[in-house]
Write a structure and sequence with these properties.
Distance between the termini: 200 Å
Helix content: 55-70%
Low-confidence stretches: 330-344
Largest sheet: 5 strands, mixed
Strand order of the largest sheet: 4-5-8-6-7
Structural class: alpha/beta
Order of helices and strands: HHHHHEEEHEHEEEE
Length: 344
Amino acid sequence: MVSRLRDAARSCASARDAAQRADAAHDAARTDAEERVAASVFSDAAEAAAALRDAAEIEQLATRVAEHDAQRTATRHRVLELELELAGTPDEPVDLAASQAALDTADAARTDALAAESEARHLAAALRDLVLQLDDAYAGVAARAAEAAAITRLADTVAGRAPNSMKMDLETFVLAAELEDIVAAANLRLQDMSSGRYRLQHSDARAARGAASGLGLEIADAFTGHARPAQSLSGGETFLASLALALGLAEVVTARAGGVRLDTLFIDEGFGSLDEETLELAMRTLDELRQGGRTVGVISHVAAMKEQLPAQLSVEATPHGPSVIRQEGSAETPAVQSGSLAEV
């Protein structure tokens, strides 16, 4: 019992000491609060309590304060950098007018550049469209060019130009085909007149120095067994070959004209270049034509021929006026009649 009373007394004494300390702390806190309120902008503690913020607002304000501190620190660093950069520069004020003019010029140039860029973009788009159109047009032109190239090649070939390696145009080609028929008909006469020695043969060999070819003639000589140029014939042989070609031409023209005959043939000179034997062969050939019903007129000064011509017209020059034409031969024989030889 006594122990409990003793313990209670001790607890009571401790509580009284604690109460006294608490009263002293309360008084000190009140005094501090009153002093703080007096030093603040608030009139009393109630007004200060009303100004307190909630936790969220306090956190937001703390964030703003931290950001402000960071910006201030960065600004201080930048100010320090500028001070270092401006160290040693004159203290006179900076001429802002020149900088502003440069800025205005740069801004105008930027505006022009943006406008030029926009125009260039539109131009590039238009050019792309044109390129597509050109591609389509080129494809069409390429097809037409291929057709034109084929037509041009055909035209050049027909005209005897490259790639025609023979230099033979279409007209010459047709004439060459006709010449082959003429040569075949002429050889029937020439072999007889040359006693079987000569034959004409058509040559389409390419001419020298790029000249047109296709109408060449060569002479096949049975004595040598080789062909030689027509220019190598003597004067009399050339006349016989020419006469044979003329007769062959007459035969072909007659055949091409649907059977219309060439009833009259005139031969101008050339007989004077023939020897007696060759002249006899030529006259025999002409006589065969006469026997076939044709009229052959011979223009010549060879006296030996007069004996073989039944009808003649003699042309004699006079000293006082025009030439005189005299008919010679039998009275009942006309100068030129069907189925006769005549000298004019």
